[in-house]
Amino acid sequence: MRLNKHNKTFLPQKEAINRKWWLVDADGIVLGRLAAKVANILRGKDKPHFTPFYDTGDFVIVINADKVKLTGNKETQKVYYRHSGYMGGLKEISYQRMKTTHPERIITHAVRGMLPKNKLNRKILKKLKVYAGSEHKHQAQKPEVFNI
After folding, report:
1. Which of 85, 83, 128 is closest to 107 using CA atoms?
2. For a tag on the chain, would you pick the N or C end, based on fewer CB atoms within 10 A?
3. What is the pTM of this model?
4. CB 138 within 8 Å of CB 61
5. Are 67 and 106 in contact (CB under 8 A)?
6. What is the set of domains in the chain, with CATH numbers?
7. Gap between the Cα atoms of 99 and 114, Å rounded
8. 24 DSSP assignment
């Protein structure tokens, strides 16, 4: 049986995937909108050779994570949960406390929720670099500025 050339599935080769570095400034940007854009870049959905089961995305550096903004009453009501795996091991931390102790985790948590829930999630999330301040250690990669 011969396949028509139009019915073949395109699979990108590893050598053909050119990964770029993007710099995103989170100062004054709404968390959900920021996370959606970053997740699309990390996953590669903005590229013509996007394949759902391949990692074709770019690297993203997010700076000023401590200046990200929330809408409505989420600043006072939002709570992050985690579980230790033991009985009664549910821990909760408020948004204000998370912002003072680990502001990078706020963006990482939001982006993780917008990625597929499989092994690809962990592989894609390694390409996300989040920093609380305006300084980062990836100048050698010459990141391009991404305006949201």
Report:
1. 128
2. N
3. 0.90
4. yes
5. no
6. 20-145 (3.90.1180.10)
7. 20
8. E
